[in-house]
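Justification of computing resources. Each target in the renewal requires a structure prediction run like the one illustrated here; the chain below, 455 residues long, is used simply to show the kind of job we budget for.
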Amino acid sequence: MSALFAAIEVMLGAFACMRYERSILLPERDEDAANALSLSLCLVSALSVCTIPPVWLGGSLLLHFLKAPELLPYLWLLPPAVLIGGANMALVRWNLRKENFGRISILEVLNAICTVTAQISLGLATKGKGGMLIVANLLGMTIATAGMIVLTWRDSADIFRHSISYQKMIYTLKRYSRFPKYGLASSVLDRLAWQMPSFLLSGFFSTTVVGEYALGSRVIRVPMSLMGTSISNVFSQRAADARNKGFLGKQAELAFQYLIRLSMFPCLLLALIGKDVFVVAFGHRWAEAGVYTQILSVWLCFWFISAPLSAIFSVLEQQHLELRFTVLIFLSRLCAFLIGGFVGSARLAVLLYSGSGASIYAYYCVVLLTQAGVPVSRIVKVLLTNVAHFLPAGLIIGVLLYFRLSSVVTVAVSCILLAAYYTNLVRIDPAVREWIGTILNRFSIQRFSSTTVSI
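Resulting C-alpha cells:
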C-alpha cells in the first residue's frame, strides 16, 4: 500500500516545482535566486491545491483501477505530500547555493530518524496497519522540511523581504522557461524508466524473477545512490559557481576523475565476483540475483558517474540535450526488456538493458564533459588509466575463478584487494583522502567544501 502511494507521489512530484527549483543555483545574485525559490514554492503550492479535486472526485475510481481500494482513507494525504516534497526540493537547492551542505545532511538524517521512529510507534499502536507507513514517511519529511524552513528563514530573511516581488517572479518564469519546457518531460520519462524493469519482468516472467532482479539492483544501487547524492549536491553548487567564474571545464574534469577513481575498481570487481558475493551474503538461493548484479555492474559504473555530472546540462541550460538522452534511455530499456521477454530469457533482458545502458551513459558522460570544455583525449586517458589500475587485481580474481575456489575465499581476497586499492588511493592523494572522508562522514561536508581541490 505504501509503495503504491509512494509511486503516485513520485509521478506527481515530477511536476512539483515545474523544474524551476533547478534554476535557483544559476543566478549570480542572491536576489534573483530568491525569486526563483519563491516562484518554485508558489508553483508547488498551486499543484498541491490542484490535486485536491481529483483526489476528492476521482480517488475511488483510480484506486479501483489500481486494485487498491484499501488506500482510499490515506489518499487525502497526497496533496500535503506533494507540497512538502516539492518545498523540500526547492529549499535544498537554496541551501546548496548557500553552501549549507552540513545542514542538508543533518536534516536528511533527522528525516530518517523521525520516519523510523514514527513507523515503529504507529505500527505498534495500530498493530502494523500498512497505511501507517504512509503517515510515518510524511511525518518524517514534514519535520525535516519544517527545520529547513526555520533555518533558511533565520539566515536569509532579509534577502527574501527586500528582493522578492511579483514582477521579478514573472521575469524568472520567462527567463528560465526552458526548465519546464524540456525538464518536465525528461523527469517524467526518467521516473517511468526506473519503474519499467519491475513491471515488465513481472509481466513476462514471474514475481520470483522480479525479486531476484530487485535484490541485485537494490544492493548495488542504494549505497552508490547515497554517495552519488552527496557528490551531486556539492558538484551542482560548484558547477554553477564555476560557470559564472569561467572555469567549469576544470571543475568538471576534477569531478570526473574522482568519480572514476571511486567507482570503477569496485564495479569491475563486482562484475567478476557478484554471484559469489550473493552466495556468501544471502545463500545459494539468491545466486541468480548475484548474476544480475554482475551483468549490471558496468552499467552501474557509468550511471554513477553521469548522475552528478548531469548538473552540467542544467548549469549550461541545455535541457533539450538532457531530454534527448532521457528519451533514448527510456526507449533502450523498453526494447531490452521487450526483446528479452519475447525470447523468454530474463538474463538476456537484463544483459541488453545493462549493455545498452552502459553505452548510452558512457556517451552521456562524454557529451556532458565536452559541453563543459573537457577535451575527449583527457576523458579517454582517465578511463584507460583507471582500467589499467584494475588489471592486476582482475588477474588475481580471474585465477581464483579459474581454479574454482570457494566463494568465501574469492570474496575474502576481493575484500583485501578492495581495501588495498582504497588505502593506496587515500595514501597517494591528500585531496582524495579529504574527499572520501567527506563521503564516509557526511556531516563533515562543510569542511570539504573549503578544500583547495573540491568538486
